[in-house]
Amino acid sequence: MKIQLPQVGESVTEGIIGKWLKEVGSKVEKFDPLVEIVTDKVAMELPSPVTGILKEIIALEGETVPMGAVIADIESDEQDSGKTASIEHSSFPNSLGTTGVLLKNTAPVGPTGSGGQPNTDGLVVEKLPKRDQIKTLARFSPAVLRLAQEHDIDLSLITATGRNNRITRKDVQSFIDSNFRSSSQGNSAFESIPEIAQSTSISTSELKDEQRVPLSPIRKMIASNMVKSANLIPQAWSLVEVDVSGMVSRRQAIREEFKQREGINITYLPFVINAVAESLKEHPLLNSSWGEDSIVMKRQINIGVAIATKAGLVVPVIHDADTLSVAGLARSLEDISTRSREGDLTVDDVRNGTFTVNNTGVLGSVASQPLVNYPQAAIMTTEAIVKRPVIVEDAIAIRSIMNICLSFDHRIMDGQEVGEFNTAVKRRLEAVGGNTPVY
Amino acid sequence: MTIKTVLEAVRDAMREEMRRDSRVFIMGEDIGARGGVFLATEGFLDEFGEARVIDTPLAESSIAGIALGSAMHGMRPIAEIEFGDFIWPTINQVVGEAAKVRYGTEGKLHAPMVLRAPHGGGVRGALYHSQSVEALFAHTPGLKVITPSTPYDAKGLLKSAIRDDDPVVFLEHKRTYRLVRGEVPDEEYTLPIGRADIKREGNDISVITYGLMVHHCLEAAQAVAGQGIEVEVLDLRTVRPIDNKAIVQTAMKTGKVLIVHEDSKALGVGAEVSAIVSEHAFEYLDGPVARLAGPEVPAMPFSPLMEAMYMIDSDKIAKAIRKLAEY
User: Fold this and answer.
1) Is A98 within a domain?
2) The predicted structure's pLDDT at residue A13
3) For a 10 Å CB count at each end of chain A, is N or C smaller?
4) Boundary of a domain, candidates A63, A91, A119
5) Contacts of residue A145 in chain B, CB cutoff 8 Å?
6) Higher pLDDT, A132 or B75
7) Is residue A105 part of a domain?
């Protein structure tokens, strides 16, 4: 009787033959350990399925063989009862040829399929699973996948209600809703939401003196990103004062001509992004992200710019910002802010940012503490430019001062690197003057 | 607002446009002295006279050909084909010629004609009084094909069709003529061609349909609402040009789309809707795009029992909705 390597686990497809525990020619009792089998899931001793004499060892120690392969031959009086769960191919001719073979013990079947049950003794009929029995756990609709990706959801956590246990879009949506409403299940990225955040939003019924405004998709996204940033990134913060008098007068000087030539207004932001991009090249650590066991340095410098729209905050990205001139940055900014306001951003526009700049100065702020745009390493705000009396070479002068604030992932870098980066940006911005090229 | 039937809405639209514009005239079999086989033009001969209300011989190719010629010369004909089933002799004039006039003459000529035809089944009309004819015309660039479901839509769209500068095939479902009633404004209005209309809002499944089936779909939506399935019913109203935007929007909203039409399934309007959904809303789909349509048999059977088997009704639609909802 041919001894086969049995199926030992669902996903196991092959096994390594270990030590043979019986020698060729020796007597083997049924259930005696015959050989050691090692698979990626288990190591086990294969018991002999029959009593007899081990006639031949076919698979040698150390060999890798697929499940179902014949590994040995035992001479035995016992009938092969078919329990080895495979067709004994040797009982059929190797090739049926054009003449074919008349199956014995099989009832004839009429043209309409009548004729009784065929006798399947000795034959293993592979039954096709019924449609309802096919597990579709691993098959997700495009809508389900998209939602899961957008909200960073592990689909294995979701209870399926669809046919054949399929996860429906509704299942994902209600999972998202319940996680945002109360994270008491604590089984996702939101598990570390502080208690206080939960208690303020745990009630789902509207009280008399409040009104519940349902979350827009963009609000949900922002909320999810902010929670991630606050929970996953240990953030530190620093502020640097920059004398931008030169930049202010440079912009004033070129304002008219630029407007005429380019058809758009020149603002301070292109000068700032220019300085940031150049400084990121010098200090690439700020242009990276946390990779758990490593720091992922980004080759491209793609600067996201936070833009407030009616729908909410969006952060379109100026890709390869270090390759653009001040004028080029101005054009890019004009383009992305127009399209942000008009809701015409594409997926590519918001992808692959490596650093974020947020011009909070337009809101009149002089210092702000932004949350890092996960999974980036740092975010910088530019604050309002205000005229202040300052000491310049032991005299009091009135200068235009702008604060820049930086929040950063303290896992990636320390104050030293951040200080150097801030200084580099400051140095560049303070150097802007009458000769600073725009093109 | 006044309650009208679809037939009355169609009649009002034509009468108002004939009063408004002297270039508009009607022609067709039995439309004059008889007032139309469905009485759509009852009283027109008395009001507008023989020059503008023309009874024609039983020759549909001529009806369409005369309409096309007069349209190219500045008139605005409404040609009635007595039953959609008799529309096939017009194919050369309409598909082969009228659809191509503006393009072929580089815009020097155009054909502002309307070809009206009662169509559709479920009226014991059997082979020659039951056919759905929209898909063949809808395939042709250069034609507009309108399939209204309510008196309000029928009137507003027929008026727009008459005012349109290019050929329009206007298909009125016979079963809606007297069975569908609805409010119609007393004041003047038109509706834009090519714009679908959400007849019922819902979040779970989009049912996209047109013509008579709109009403069966609404009944089915009502029936499954009790089982917690919220159905959105989108009435295409115009099958050419088709309202891509509305189709994609509803598909994105619900993620599940069922298309229902009485016309047979293969290569029909549903196939186009399905393709639009796949092309533009793929990432939003949460189930296979489903179609419920007439069977692939050559014609409507005469036996009442078999006609009922052929026709799509609200029970069949509700079953298809439940099946897709469970997916």
Assistant:
1) no
2) 67
3) C
4) A91
5) 283
6) B75
7) no
**How many domains is chain A partitioned into structurally?**
3
- Cα distance between residue B303 and residue A190, in whole Å: 63
The residue in chain A having the minimum alpha-carbon distance to the alpha carbon of residue B283 is A142
pLDDT digits (tens, 9 = 90+) for A114-147: 444 444 444 444 455 555 444 444 678 999 999 9
Per-residue confidence band for A183, with pLDDT thresholds at 50, 70 and 90: very low
Instruction: Please tell me the predicted confidence (pLDDT) of residue A313.
Output: 84
Structure tokens at A79: 């009938």
Nearest to A280 by CA among A379, A349, A400, A168: A379
Q: What tokens were used for B86?
A: 């008799």
Query: Nearest residue of A to residue B204 by CA position?
Result: A170
Q: Report yes or no: B60 and B81 within 8 Å, Cβ to Cβ.
A: yes
pLDDT in tens, B189-207: 999 999 999 999 999 999 9
Tell me the backbone φ, ψ of residue A279, rounded to 5 degrees: -70, -30
Residue A438 lies in a domain: no
Query: Which chain A positions have a beta carbon within 8 Å of B287's beta carbon?
Result: 141
Q: Where are the alpha helices (DSSP H) in chain B?
A: 6-20, 44-48, 60-72, 91, 101-104, 134-138, 151-163, 174-179, 213-225, 244-254, 269-281, 304-310, 314-326
Whether the per-residue pLDDT at A359 is higher than 60: the answer is: yes
Helix (H) or strand (E) holding A222: helix A217-232
Measured in angstroms, the CA of B285 and the nearest CA of chain A are apart by 5
Buried b (16+ CB within 10 A) or exposed e, A270-297: bbbbbbbbbbbeebbbbbbbbeeeebee
Angle between helices B6-20 and B151-163 (to 10 degrees): 30
Indicate whether A336 and A255 sit together in one domain: yes
Question: In terms of DSSP bridges, do strands B197-200 and B231-235 run parallel, antiparallel, or are they unpaired?
Answer: antiparallel
pLDDT band at A156 (very low <50, low <70, confident <90, very high): confident
* Torsions phi, psi for A184 (to 5 deg): -65, -25
Per-residue pLDDT tens for B269-284? 999 999 999 999 999 9
Cα–Cα distance measured from residue A320 to residue A300, given in angstroms and rounded to the nearest whole number: 6
Catalytic positions of A are 410, 414
Q: Phi and psi of B135, rounded to 5°?
A: -65, -40
Sign, CA torsion B39/B45/B48/B51: positive
Verify that A414 and A266 share a domain, yes or no: yes
Q: Does A55 map to a domain? A: yes
Side chain identity at residue A94, one-letter code: N
Q: Are residues A149 and A255 in the same domain?
A: no
Both A192 and A317 in one domain: the answer is no
- Average pLDDT for residues A39-55, to the nearest whole number? 78
Question: pLDDT tens digit string along A377-388?
Answer: 999 999 999 999
Contact A403/A240 with Cβ under 8 angstroms? yes
CB B318 within 8 A of CB B229: no
CATH number for the domain including A400? 3.30.559.10
Report, in this order, helix, strand and coil percent for chain B, each rounded to 5. Answer: 45, 20, 35
Instruction: Output the six-digit token pair for B249.
Output: 């929007």
- B253 close contact with A: CB closer than 8 A: no
Q: Contact at 8 Å (CB) between A317 and A350?
A: yes
State if pTM tops 0.80: no
Alpha-helical (H) ranges within B164-211 are 174-179
pLDDT, tens digit (0-9, with 9 covering 90-100), for A279-308? 999 999 999 999 888 999 999 999 999 998
Which residues span the domain enclosing A332?
A: 236-430
DSSP string, A98-127: TT--PPTT-----TTS-S-PPP-TT----P
| pLDDT for the residue A30 | 87
Is it the case that residue A46 has pLDDT exceeding 90?
A: no
CB contact under 8 A, B285 and A146: no
